[in-house]
Automatic annotation (TrEMBL):
Originating organism: Capsicum annuum (Capsicum pepper)
Region (Disordered): 1-42
Biased composition (Low complexity): 30-40
Lineage: Eukaryota, Viridiplantae, Streptophyta, Embryophyta, Tracheophyta
Domain of life: Eukaryota
Domain BLOC-1-related complex subunit 6 C-terminal helix: 48-143
Annotated protein name in UniProt: BLOC-1-related complex subunit 6 C-terminal helix domain-containing protein
Amino acid sequence: MESNQTLVSEKETIQLNSDEREECGDNGNSESQTSSSSSSLVNGEEIMKAIQVVERDSMAIAHSYTCLFASLRSALSEVTSTSVDHMNCFGDAAGRVQECALDAATKGNRYINSCLRLNEEMKGIDNLSTQLKIIRRNVDALDSAVNRLVRFP
């Protein structure tokens, strides 16, 4: 691209020089025409140099902006990719937590049902306990009676 700019600048310089020569009449006889021609030539060359500097600076700025936008695009892509990865991990973790919560709730319900069944069974235990106490007294009384009868002789 630099060579294209140089070619364009050289063509413009040649065109500018030929335009200046036409304005001056291209006869070169008078000294005023020569000084006017050389001063306009100097001004033209200075203008061309200034234009070339502006073009170079503009190209450098454009390149800088291009690099900046490429860098921003890359950073945004990386951040987006990282965010998607984090969202996927979050979704996986949330799914596992949900599975564990459902499993814990199921086991908790089983435990509660077992406790309720045991509680129902324990309600009948009081009667059984009373009956066992009565049977034990009867067995003790029977044992005492048998012991008295056996020791009697």
